[in-house]
Design brief:
The chain has 221 residues and is of the alpha/beta class. Helices cover 36% and strands 19% of the residues. The longest helix has 19 residues.
């Protein structure tokens, strides 16, 4: 839901975005984005309520382009980046943001006997980063934390990523999120790594709105 929230903010600002999903159905991802953008609930979007049609007619022409595509788990990273290139060709316009949900499920395309999960994540991470630099747009993804991390008030850090540290070492920015155990509508945000500015800073608890697929407070006007 974090990724779809960022995509929603991008297309709200007129940017073009794509979501490669290896977990949820592409339609569900699109419903989340539309709920976020239109100030509607996911249920209202699924039912195509009159308020959804009204708000889409009102703001639709101002939105950037959005496309989603479902990929099977372990799809090689090269297939996903090739799809992103075809999307730009179909649009006849530049992509501004590619969201991958999520990086742990992406395959390296190499023989599993020659490359374990730890090394495979280095291959995948570098491929996405190189692709982002080549095409001059942002690539964002998510990764799970280790099951034992984030307890006892401890903020998640770079060594708390599951399976492989390569994912966080390769990225230019890493943000850790921890859900409050007593309230699943509150999330702590902690900026672990930022190659272009300040890091090691947190926000404290911020409200999340699951019904509208929002992981940060925002009011679309």
């Amino acid at each position: 839901m974090v990724l779809s929230s960022i995509v929603a903010d991008a297309i709200w600002r007129g940017k073009n975005a794509a979501i490669a999903t290896l977990e949820l159905d592409g339609r569900k991802q699109l419903e989340r984005v539309l709920a976020n953008v239109l100030n509607c609930t996911i249920d209202e979007v699924q039912r195509v309520d009159p308020i959804v049609r009204h708000r889409l007619a009102e703001v639709g022409p101002k939105l950037g382009k959005i496309v989603t595509q479902r990929f099977a788990p372990d799809t090689p990273v090269g297939e996903i980046t090739a799809w992103a290139e075809r999307v730009q060709q179909d649009w006849g316009a530049k992509m501004d943001l590619l969201a991958v949900d999520y990086i742990d499920l992406v395959g390296s395309g190499k023989n599993g006997k020659d490359e374990g999960d730890y090394k495979a994540q280095k291959t995948v991470g570098n491929a996405f980063r190189d692709h982002a630099l080549e095409h001059k747009y942002y690539v964002i993804s998510a990764t799970q934390g280790r099951r034992s991390s984030g307890t006892g008030g401890k903020s998640l850090d770079v060594d708390d990523a599951a399976d492989s540290q390569h994912k966080v070492r390769i990225a230019d920015m890493v943000i850790a999120m921890r859900m409050e155990l007593e309230s699943k509508d509150l999330v702590d945000w902690y900026l672990i790594l930022n190659r272009d500015g300040t890091d090691r800073i947190g926000t404290g608890s911020l409200p999340a709105n699951r019904a509208m697929a929002r992981m940060f407070p925002v009011n679309r006007r």
